[in-house]
Amino acid sequence: MEPALITVPVGIPMVALVGSNDAYLRIFEKTFPDISITVRGNEIFANGDLVQLDQFESLIKELLVLLRAGQLLTEDAVLRSTAMIKHDPIEHPAEVLSLNILSNRGKTIRPKTSNQKRYVEAIDDHTITFGIGPAGTGKTYLAVACAVDALERSAVQRIVLTRPAVEAGERLGFLPGDLTQKIDPYLRPLYDALYDLMGYDKVHKAFERQMLEVAPLAFMRGRTLNNAFVILDEAQNTTTEQMKMFLTRIGFGSKAVVTGDVSQIDLPKTQVSGLIDAERVLQRVQGIAMCRFTSADVVRHPLVARIVDAYDQRKTPSA
To answer: Can you tell me the distance from the alpha carbon of 44 to that of 17, in angstroms, rounded to the nearest whole number?
Structure first.
């Protein structure tokens, strides 16, 4: 079998593809241990296992697409591209990593996994989208990015972010301050996402103009939300009644995204999660998309994905 020959186009320095001090080349060699890889000038020679050889060629072609588009490769981008190719050889990492969701404050927000790309596309194509999966998969952050983009394009007139305050009973009453101060800890992650995407000053101006609203889920009752981008976060902690109440708030010209992690339900054990119930009841309803994330979509420290897998694999102890 003749070795594969890949010629790097003129104008793309080999170091951009293999990394400084061959950092990316070492990733290739670790990912595809059954092939040998040699770099000479602007050419890459590879030989060995046919399956891994095909995957390696596909990976290099995808990385070259990113480089030709003017994107600088990072270790994270290389690792995610190799993971996508290894998982599905017909996957196109360049399409995933070059999809611009929002450009703001000198940075561009893009999906980092295939599931994240499908999630963003589902939000664009559907009135209501569910994002269900473990912590760190970007469910809330990407939804807020899509909402900010829609607001800046005038596709909606305001953003409404909400979460259930599961401690809204006795224990919340013991917290200091007025109602706003009591519920603030539950809404803080939503504020953090807004500040990161828009900047502190811009967020506060948007609040003053009533273009942004962050409120606990209980405040949604009795309202109709027209021309709004509405996000319900931590939806695993809604009851079935609360979930139905939220979904029926959606008015004309609005979008809704519901995010949650069914492995982190804080409701009493006798209470059915509104998120689990909604996934079962609404999965075939036209206009609603259900997107599932796994540990492979975790975009935090790599250890987080391993922690998620460890808990998923743990057997439930017998009573």
So the answer is: 10
The gap between the terminal CA atoms of the chain, to the nearest Å, is 58
Supply the pTM of this predicted model. Answer: 0.83
d(CA 149, CA 178): 33
Give the Cβ contact number of residue 109 at 10 Å. 22
| Angle at alpha carbon of residue 268, lines to 135 and 243, rounded to 5° | 65
d(CA 100, CA 112): 11
Q: How far is CA 40 from CA 11, 15, 45, 138, in A?
A: 16, 12, 8, 39
Question: Taking a C-beta distance cutoff of 8 angstroms, is the pair 258, 283 a contact?
Answer: no
pLDDT in tens, 189-229: 888 999 999 999 999 999 999 999 988 888 898 999 999 99
Dihedral sign from CA coordinates of 231, 237, 242, 247: positive
- Give the C-alpha separation, 250 to 127, whole Å: 9
Q: Could you tell me the pLDDT band of residue 296, with boundaries at 50, 70 and 90? A: confident
Q: Quick one: pLDDT at residue 169?
A: 43
Mean pLDDT, the chain, whole residue set: 88
| Strand, coil or helix: 232 | strand
pLDDT category at 62 given cuts 50, 70, 90 is: very high
- Asked if 249 and 224 touch (Cβ cutoff 8 Å), the reply is yes
For the chain, give the percent of residues with pLDDT over 90. Answer: 67
- DSSP letter, residue 285: -
CB 19 within 8 Å of CB 81: no
91 closest CA partner among 72, 121, 127, 115: 115
Tokens encoding 230: 């509405």
Q: Which stretches of the chain are DSSP H helices?
A: 14-18, 23-31, 50-68, 75-87, 93-97, 114-125, 139-152, 170-173, 179-198, 200-208, 240-247, 274-282, 302-313
Q: Are 128 and 289 in contact (CB under 8 A)?
A: yes
Phi, psi of 289 (to 5 degrees): -115, 140
